[in-house]
């Protein structure tokens, strides 16, 4: 699947010419795949599953919950590909709900090119139909044959917790980041301090998103992409909206996961979310915890079987 240059370049003309994208052309170049997709717009919830758990709590200072999530357990008809994502919407829930329904199924290939194109396509389709309906961050990880394929835009984080350390698999696209400032200024935008936070055009603290059509010259949907090989040291993957990190550092998140690793993933997620809210986080908090030991064991078993099949006497 490829998003045509003509279709994608049309983004930069939205503010002047309106949203006149050739969706028929986009649809002709993209083949949708049927799959099991679980998505929901959430308020305060606790999802309990064997391999993963989700806890979401509406912030005490928020009028509504704008976070959503997606879990796909059979991506591309393979029992070894599982996708997990959290979406943190702003200026309404339209963008986060749309992305949670469409982003994962828009993935055609699991390489960097395929992931980027899925983000671009989701952005184009949303902005074409919702030019004034806000935007959303994304944090996505796909578990594929012993590898973690991660991609994010905005400030929703992905943390890999190990036995004695942690690794951040995402990158915060925020207006205080010097490289993002340079990119936006070269595109003709500006960043100023508003209410003690650096913001694009004085409005948005993030610099990449799906949606935000009126700022599309500056807020691009190109994700940070990273592939990580799983190891026996890996305990769990934590995907969380930025409300978790208003009061907890990644180091603290890792320590809590290690301390609670014998608990169910939903209990770990609930502990993290409750700790953030109780410590004074004002934002919505959504936490997804995916235990990795079984995924790693499954991948090792499949690798061994493949070796045995290919061995010739």
Question: Can you characterise this structure?
Answer:
This protein has 313 residues and is α+β, with helices and mostly antiparallel strands. The protein has one domain (5-173, 208-300): PPM-type phosphatase domain (Phosphatase 2c, domain 1, 4-Layer Sandwich). 30% of the residues lie in helices and 27% in strands. The chain is built from 9 helices and 16 strands. The strands form 3 sheets. Strands 1, 4, 5, 6, 7, 8, 13 and 14 form an 8-stranded antiparallel β-sheet that branches. Strands 2-3-16-15-9-10 form a 6-stranded antiparallel β-sheet. Strands 11-12 form a two-stranded antiparallel ribbon. Its main location: membrane. Keywords: Membrane. Pfam families: PP2C.
Largest sheet: 8 strands, antiparallel
- Taking the alpha carbons of the first and last residues, their distance comes to 41 Å
Tally of helical runs:
9
| CATH architecture level-2 label | 4-Layer Sandwich
Rg, alpha carbons? 19 Å
Q: Quickly give the structural class.
A: alpha+beta
Order of helices and strands: HHHEEEEEHHEEEEEHEEEEEHHEH
What is the number of beta strands? 16
Number of domains: 1
Shape: globular
Q: State which percent range the strand residues make up.
A: 25-35%
Brief digest:
This protein is α+β, with helices and mostly antiparallel strands.
């Amino acid at each position: 699947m490829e998003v045509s240059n003509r279709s994608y370049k049309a983004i930069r003309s939205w503010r002047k010419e309106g949203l006149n994208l050739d969706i028929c052309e986009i649809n002709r170049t993209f083949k949708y795949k049927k799959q099991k997709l679980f998505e929901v717009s959430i308020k305060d919830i606790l999802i309990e599953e064997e391999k993963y758990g989700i806890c979401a709590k509406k912030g005490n200072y928020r009028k509504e919950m704008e976070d959503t999530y997606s879990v796909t357990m059979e991506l591309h008809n393979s029992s070894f590909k599982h996708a997990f994502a959290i979406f943190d919407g702003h200026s309404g829930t339209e963008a986060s709900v749309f992305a949670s329904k469409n982003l994962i199924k828009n993935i055609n290939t699991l390489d960097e090119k395929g992931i980027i194109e899925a983000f671009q396509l989701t952005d184009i389709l949303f902005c074409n139909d919702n030019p004034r309906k806000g935007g959303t961050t994304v944090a996505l990880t796909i578990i594929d044959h012993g590898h973690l394929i991660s991609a994010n835009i905005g400030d929703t984080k992905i943390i890999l917790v190990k036995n004695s350390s942690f690794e951040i698999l995402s990158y915060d696209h925020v207006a205080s980041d010097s490289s993002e400032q340079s990119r936006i200024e070269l595109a003709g935008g500006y960043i100023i301090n508003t209410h003690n936070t650096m913001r694009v055009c004085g409005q948005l603290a993030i610099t990449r998103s799906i949606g935000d059509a009126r700022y599309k010259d500056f807020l691009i949907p190109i994700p940070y992409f990273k592939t990580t090989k799983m190891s026996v040291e890996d305990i769990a993957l934590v995907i969380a909206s930025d409300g978790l990190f208003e009061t907890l550092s990644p180091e603290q998140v890792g320590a809590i996961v290690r301390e609670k690793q014998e608990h169910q993933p939903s209990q770990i997620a609930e502990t993290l979310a409750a700790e953030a809210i109780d410590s004074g986080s004002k934002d919505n908090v959504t936490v997804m915890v995916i235990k990795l030991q079984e995924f790693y064991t499954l991948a090792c078993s499949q690798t061994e079987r493949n070796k045995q099949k290919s061995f010739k006497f």
